[in-house]
Amino acid sequence: MTTRTVSALIPGQPTQDGNRVPLTRLVPGRGQHGSEAFRAMDPFLLMDHFGPMVLPPGTDAGFPPHPHRGFQTLTYLIQGAFRHRDSTGGSGLLRPGGAQLMNAGAGIVHEEMPVPEQLETGGPIEGVQLWINLPKAHKGSAPGYTDLQPEAMPWTPLPGGRIRVLAGTWAGVTGPAVTPAKVAYAHLELEAGAAFEQAVPAAWTAAVVPLRGSVRIGSQEVAADTVALLGAGDLLALEATSPASLMLLAGEPLREPIAHYGPFVMNTPAEIEQAIRDYQQGRMGHLE
After folding, report:
1. Residue 186 lies in a domain
2. Is residue 233, in this structure, part of any structural domain at all?
3. Is residue 288 part of a domain?
4. What does the pLDDT profile of the chain (288 residues) look like in tens digits?
5. How many domains in the chain?
6. Does the residue 79 lie in any domain?
7. 36: containing domain
8. What is the CATH number of the domain that holds 186?
9. By the 8 A CB rule, do 48 and 23 touch?
């Protein structure tokens, strides 16, 4: 097998979203724009590490109603509790270690806010949201969401660490998230000096994203909130150089045209214009 080395290190960009929620935008990263970023990370469109932060009592921090079309979001919660609701009538509770897979498909309006008691009393919040592109044939699919409870993706012990698999197969464990794009996604925690290896299809995009601590891939040190995009090969191998918490991403590129505007990701500019009209005219539904 050929071990993948780091082809690019992409620093995350500190920013805010929603109601003043601090986050690090990892994909697209600093210095990446438009189609350059989408080609590099295909089929992944965006990755945000929100928090870690401690909400002050009485805050309104969160993500109020906003639309999406043409892709899926996979929101993974590390700390805190979020309540979701959307224009299809769906609602759910995200607990630590749980996730929500939302299919924006033909269009949806949703919100994600800390649970009311946490808004009143304050408390820690941390998570990761990943946008996964939908193939052209699925962009008009019915919107909806799937709750992925912590019990459906428990921690699995590894030598010197543990792994929680959200999608695809890592370390012999298959995660519950099923997406039209073929992806594999996991949260890995390692002690300093521990190593991890995983076979990854040679044609797939692969990346390693430390949230805390640092890892070494070949001769390259990768710090927290940095995307290590991996080059050619069929083996992902890394070693923790300090206690580390990181996300592992791999996916088969769609290699389809991308038109992007804010919360909409389609194949052509005309489809983006239609998405804007449909949202403005209420055809994606409403949240009261």
Report:
1. yes
2. yes
3. no
4. 899 999 999 999 998 887 778 889 998 855 555 555 567 899 999 999 988 888 777 667 778 899 999 999 999 999 988 889 999 998 888 899 999 999 999 999 999 887 776 666 667 889 999 999 999 999 999 999 999 999 999 999 999 999 999 999 999 999 999 999 999 999 999 999 999 999 999 999 999 999 999 999 999 999 999 999 999 999 999 999 999 999 999 999 999 999 999 999 999 999 999 999 999 999 999 887
5. 1
6. yes
7. 6-280
8. 2.60.120.10
9. yes
